[in-house]
Write a structure and sequence with these properties.
By secondary structure, this protein is mainly alpha-helical. The chain contains 13 helices and no strands. The radius of gyration is 24 Å and the shape is elongated.
């Protein structure tokens, strides 16, 4: 292979390794292995070239970082939440943004469909739920559906179901993202028609103040899980400079870490839905405080903090634009 071709095929990846910090020790080790292979090839076919010199220096830097990283294994758990997960979120921000925009579009479609077809809500939510909610509205307690079950049982059932949906959304990426987009579509459609139904009944504000106590975390986590699935699907469909197998392995690793990182969010959402949402008589300020804190947690940890960690790690000014 001519040196120019070798450069063209790999320089984008080398530049990424040089400018973007690894998400964790596993990825750092993988980068080091790949660079040593490239360096061995360059030394064989292009001895004394600037390419070989460059690769030798870059590999040396990664070797030092890898050796230094081995001393930090005791802090692996804390490092995952403090640096590794935020960097993964920053790296795959476009997949996560795509998941959010697609979910938002599906929510709008659900609301419009409910507005144009009176039977649509029953198709999506089921006759039993609609009839029960209409009866509760007539009784003056539209959110009474959240009061019917034992708190602990409700918490466990909802949390396990949400975690299962999250893993399905991630695993659906292996279909090229088709199953992931279907799950985002169905959940967005349900949310849109659900909220329009309460608007149609004149109880939109009470529904928002109640449902979004847990829904802020739950819906956000579903969207992020969809992003994890799109990461997996994208690695399969668009391998870039990697072989499809290597790309899929990297996408599966990153997507799984993103999905597992959402487990605490689903636990908090399940706790709120099981133990807090049922108190529909709570003061307005209490409901708004819980919703506001939940939104601040999602935006802070999954938007602002990853941007800050990424900018700081890449050596760019924290004030520069993404």
């Amino acid at each position: 292979m001519r040196e120019a071709v070798f450069l063209r095929q790999n320089q984008e990846r080398w530049h990424q390794y040089e400018t973007q910090p690894a998400a964790g020790p596993d990825e750092l080790a993988q980068r080091f292995v790949e660079l040593t292979d490239d360096l061995s090839y360059a030394r064989t076919f292009y001895p004394g070239s600037t390419t070989t010199t460059y690769l030798n220096g870059l590999t040396g830097k990664l070797h030092q970082a890898l050796y230094k990283n081995k001393k930090e294994d005791a802090g692996r758990f804390g490092r995952f939440w403090r640096r590794e997960l935020p960097l993964l979120v920053a790296r795959h921000r476009y997949a996560l943004l795509g998941s959010f925009l697609f979910f938002l579009l599906c929510t709008i479609i659900g609301a419009l469909s409910a507005a144009l077809d009176d039977t649509f809500v029953r198709v999506v939510l089921g006759d039993s739920y609609v009839n029960q909610t209409l009866a509760n509205i007539r009784k003056g307690d539209p959110m009474a559906v959240y009061k019917g079950k034992d708190e602990t049982l409700m918490f466990l059932t909802i949390t396990l179901n949400n975690i299962k949906v999250s893993l399905y959304a991630f695993a659906g990426g292996i279909t090229g993202g088709f199953l992931t987009t279907y799950l985002l579509f169905s959940n967005g459609l349900m949310l849109g028609s659900f909220q329009y139904f309460f608007y149609q009944q004149g109880v939109l504000l009470p529904s928002v103040l109640t449902i979004w106590i847990h829904g802020t975390l739950e819906i956000s986590a579903i969207i992020l899980a969809g992003g994890a699935g799109l990461v997996l699907g994208g690695s399969l469909l668009f391998p870039g400079t990697y072989s499809r197998r290597d790309s899929l392995r990297r996408g599966a690793r990153d997507g799984m870490k993103l999905a597992l990182g959402l487990v605490p969010i689903f636990i908090m959402a399940g706790f709120l839905e099981g133990f807090v949402t049922r108190h529909t008589e709570m003061p307005l300020w209490a409901s708004l405080t819980i919703i506001g804190l939940s939104a601040a947690l999602i935006l802070g940890y999954f938007v602002v903090y990853p941007w800050w960690v990424y900018r700081r790690g890449s050596g760019l000014p924290v004030s520069s634009a993404v």
